[in-house]
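Retro notes, structure queue

What went well: the backlog is down to a handful. What didn't: a couple of records were mislabeled last round, so from now on we paste the full input next to the output in the thread. Example, using EamA domain-containing protein from Marinobacter profundi:
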Amino acid sequence: MSTPSVTPTYQPGIKSVFLLLGVGVLIALMLPLARAALEDGVTPLAYAFWQALGGAVILAAWLRRRSSLGVQGKFVRYFGISGLTAIAVPNAVAFAVVANIGAGLTATLYALPSLATYAIAVTLGMEPLRKRKAIGLSFGVAGCVWILSPNPAGISPDTLPWLLLGLLVPLSLAIGNIYRTAHWPTGASPEQLAVGMLLGGAALIFMVVLMAGDVQTLVVEGTRLWAILVLQSILTAIGYRGFFHLQRQTSPTFLSQLGFVITPAGMLFGIVFYGESYGWAVWGGVVLLLTGVVLANLPGRQSSSYGAD
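Corresponding output:
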C-alpha cells in the first residue's frame, strides 16, 4: 500500500476516547503483572513470548467461534514487522527494565512515542501539521522527560542505564504506529491483524531464544506463574483487539497517545500493588504531561493545510 495523502486532522469522538482509556489501562496493568512474574524467576523474553502466544491463542479461539479468523499468508510481512515493533522489542525491553526501575517509571516510556509518531506522520504526509497539537504533544513528552530526569526529588541516577535501554520502547512503538496504518492489508479486520501481530511477535522472540541456544529459559513452572500468564494473556487478547480498532478508526498520532494513559495508570498501579513512591518532580511531570494531552486534543478548525489550528 502507498502512504496515504494528507487528510484533515482527526478529532476524537467519545467512543474513541473511551477505547483509548480502556486499552491504555489494560496495557498499564500488564506491567505490575510482569514485575510479579519476573520476581518469581521468569526471564523477560520468556514472559514476552508467553504473553504474546497466549493472547494470540485466546483471540484466535474467540474469532474461530465467530467464523471470522481467516488469517492469510500474504499478510506475513505485515505480521512480522508489526510483531517486531509492537510486541517483541517493546515488551521484552519493558519487562527487562521494570524490575530495575519499577512499574510506574517503566510506564512513562510508553508516553514518549507520541511526538515521534506525529513528526513521522507529518513528514510522510499522513497528517497535517497543527501548531497546537505539536505544542501539546511536546508538553506531554517534556513531562515524561521531567519524570525520567535523575534528580534528588525524582529518580536515582543509578537507574539511568536502564532508562536508556528503555528508550528502545518508544522508538519501536513510533515506527510501528506509522507502519501499521500505512500498510494496513486490504480486507483485513482488526481482530485478524491482532492475532497475526501477536503470533508474529511470539515467533520472533522464539527465533531469538532458539538462535541463542536458550530455549530452556522459556520453560515456566509453578501454579502462581501460570496463573499470572493466563491473566496476562487474557488482558493481552482484549487489549490488542481494542488496539487495532483504534488503529483503524483513528490516526497514528491519536493511537500513540495511549502512552499518555499508560503513564499515570502505570504509576497508580505501582503505588497500589508495590507501594512505589515518587518525588515532587515526578508528579510535576505528570501534570505537564496531562496538560499536553488536553492541548493536543482540543477541537480546532478542520483543515488539510500545514500550520492550521
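Agreed that this is the format going forward. Reviewer comment attached to the example: The radius of gyration is 19 Å.
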